[in-house]
Amino acid sequence: MSNEIFNKGIELGRERHAHISEKGAKWKARNIPVYIREHLLVPYYITQNGPNLELWIINYPMGVNEKVDFVRFATVPYEASAIYAGTKPSG
Question: Is the pLDDT of residue 84 over 90?
C-alpha cells in the first residue's frame, strides 16, 4: 500500500512539474521563489526523517499571493520503502 501511495505521489509531482515548466519566464520569476527556481526545481524529492522516508512533491500555487512550494505527500517506514532511497527524480 505505501509503495502505491509513493508511486501516485511521484506521478502527481511529475504532472505538476510539467504544468509549471510550461509557464513563461515572467510567470516563473513572479511565482517561483529564487532558491527553488535555481536549486530545487524538481518534481519531487525524498527525505529521511528518523526511521521514516518522506515524499515531498512540488505544489502549484492556488491562491493569488501563493508561490510554488513543496508539500509532504506521504511518510512511510524506511524499511518498507528502501527501494526509493536511491531514486533520482526525472523531469
Answer: no
H/E element holding 7? helix 2-21
Query: If 0-12 CB within 10 Å is exposed, 13-18 middle and 19+ buried, where does residue 41 land?
Result: middle
Amino acid present at 6 = F
Residues 46, 84: Cα–Cα separation, whole Å: 8
Cβ atoms of 10 and 88 within 8 Å: the answer is no
CB 54 within 8 A of CB 71: no
pTM: 0.79
Nine-digit cell string for 28: 516563473
CB atoms within 10 A of CB 81: 19
Helix (H), strand (E) at residue 58? strand 52-59
